[in-house]
Design goal:
Keywords: Membrane, Transmembrane, Transmembrane helix. The chain is an all-alpha fold. The protein contains 3 helices and no strands.
Length: 78
Amino acid sequence: MALLLLVALVGAGVIFLPRVVYPPLTNEQLQYIDDTVVRLQLKSARSALEIEFRWQLIAMVAIFLTAGVVGFRMWLKK
């Protein structure tokens, strides 16, 4: 049960946390930019930041998971 809760929390964090840290640009924020190409570049850059942050979260989870497995195996060998 606790493992399922942990997986759900990690999954929710990987999905929702990047949107909280790097929220999408709103139309109000972009209304002062006249050039459509620049608007698309800004939206694309924000999306790239969100994706990069998501991959960093996944990498951190993998590192912690690996450390936990190694620690557990060392504990079992005692």
